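input
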Amino acid sequence: MPDLWAASVAFHGALLVGAIAFYPKYGDKTDIIDKSLKGTKEALDALLTYLGRALAAHIAPVVVGKDRDIKVTVLGEYFNDSISDFLTSEIEEMVMYRRLVLARNRWSACSRWLSRGLLTLIGVEALFTLATVVAKITTYSISVKLLLWSFAISAILFGVCLICLVGMNHHHDQISKYRQDIL
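output
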């Protein structure tokens, strides 16, 4: 039977060192948010400005402004028709705005989960590594079942971090594509 205690120290120690090395880049979101979401606010502002001007152009013929009183000059049907025309003609831009907002929100959620996952992984791996080393030094016998559970818990946490990283990359690619389409 292999020496599970040595394997445990190597496995948990390697994950601990890796998580600590990974944390400054992906755990502290200040720098990564600036880099990944750069230009997203400008793209959203540009879309809002465009949509606002397009809406104003569509409803201008039916709305008259006079001394800060805005009155609809004709029946509401014409106003509704101009809004309907606006929605029909600008649907792609509105959908693009929604997609960009959703991609940004999903990227942010993956980023939060990755940061929390890394912190949890660091804590769990420090605990498992320390427990294994102390058990080896004091010749305390840890059950094989407990060691295998520690491997499983670590693998699950590592998998969550990888899934979050893949999600961040996917949504970052979407954000980049939408920004290119907009700007």
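quick obs: Residues 91-137 form the longest helix (47 residues).
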